[in-house]
Amino acid sequence: MTSAWVVLLAVVAYMVVLAGISYVVRRSSRTSEGLANGGRVFPAVLIGFLLMSEFIGTSATLGTAQEAYDVGISAAWNVVALAIGFVLFSLFVARRYKALGENTISGALASTYGEGVRTATSVIMTCALLIVAVAIYASGGAMLSSLLGIDRDLAIVVVGVLATVYVVIGGMRSVVYTNVLHAVLKLAAVGLLAVIGVTRVGGLGELRAALPAENFSVDGVGWGQIFAWLIAGVGAIFATQYVVQAVTTVADPGRAQRAGFYSALMLVPFGILAAVVGMVAAALYPGIDSLDALPTLAVDVHPLVTAIVMCGLVGAILGSIAALIIGSATLLLKDFYRPFFNRDGDDRKDVVFLRVATFGAGVVPIALALFASDVLAVTFLAKSLRAALAVLIVLMFYRPTYGSSRGAVVSILAALVATTGWFLAGDPFGIDNAYVAVACPLVIMTVVHLLGKRRGTPQEPLVKEQTA
């Protein structure tokens, strides 16, 4: 009972700190640009922390440990794939995103492919972000419920309301600052558990003796799965609203590039440490449900360590949710509200709408998570859909005359239908839906391009050509 109170008090104190940060920075959210972008430029290292924290939610934290419980160290590829994605993002598109001057993924694509692409992209991106939010609420609520001994539905509501409130109050600046704190606690949590777990087993030598040899193979999970993680992870990073939004808050393209490198540097150790936690749990607690690998170890340590782990897991939930909320609200503002309901550009109306949209983007997934916890499997589908957009992003920056505007719209719609259908069919023939998502725009844009060349002219001119 004493241990439970220590953990509860630590979590409550952590939430109070988050609320305090949002209150202190609330002045930055008095304009629509301040609410969406933070009202200032941020150092690259802070954006690196933000990006890292945004991608390490409960599914990455608990899921990596769960996978490692079954297959060993190769489960770390789940997170290392994200690190590789950020390296590629920094090398090839970060500077270009910043130079483009657009803070939405739909606006970036529309600058080359036209307004039809803007609408299609915005709809798909908003749906993908909210699907992930539902999954994070559901998994996070279940995790907090089991660890804190509280009702699952209550845990979902509390976490969802807190995340929504601090984003509504503080906007993008509160998301940046609180995610730095989340990132530090996440790294500390998995690091402490990994060290304590290895010590309890008796060292790395004893851990190796306790587990099958294949658990220490870098490809134990299978190269097919590893490449699917890479495709989905890289695609999600190249074409996710909150990534674009984050890198446009730094001062110049060079800092945008460095932010991605900083994030990658933090993701690699996190993935390895989370996998080690799953492996030591397999050695210490054989026979438990693999999903309980990290939570079981977390409650079997000193209460202060459990408290740090709990705060880290709360941070894993809130960090991702905050980014999803602000990203969805910004898309709704830029692509639906302003063009149709605020053409005069009244900033006061924008601020009101952005706060309402932020609240809605935070609350709607709560209601769905209470009744639809089975959507957890859809999170990977959401990554795959963004991978389809990533193909168009690369073409936009490096081959803007390849294909056509109409081909881009068809690619997005076809990828949505084909990838979702393939996923619902259970990934036939062992082909992951991520491959289908990438293949659709590649094939369609290639066919459109070749048909245009046969006719002597493109089907329709692209809006403009991007420069480096």
Automatic annotation (TrEMBL):
Keywords on record: Membrane, Transmembrane, Transmembrane helix, Transport
Subcellular localization: Membrane
Stated family: Belongs to the sodium:solute symporter (SSF) (TC 2.A.21) family.
Lineage per the UniProt record: Bacteria, Bacillati, Actinomycetota, Actinomycetes, Pseudonocardiales
Protein name, entry field: SSS family solute:Na+ symporter
Broad class of where this protein is predominantly found: membrane
Transmembrane spans: 6-25, 41-63, 75-94, 123-148, 154-172, 184-203, 223-244, 264-285, 305-332, 352-372, 378-398, 407-425, 431-452
GO molecular function: transmembrane transporter activity
GO CC term (a single one): plasma membrane
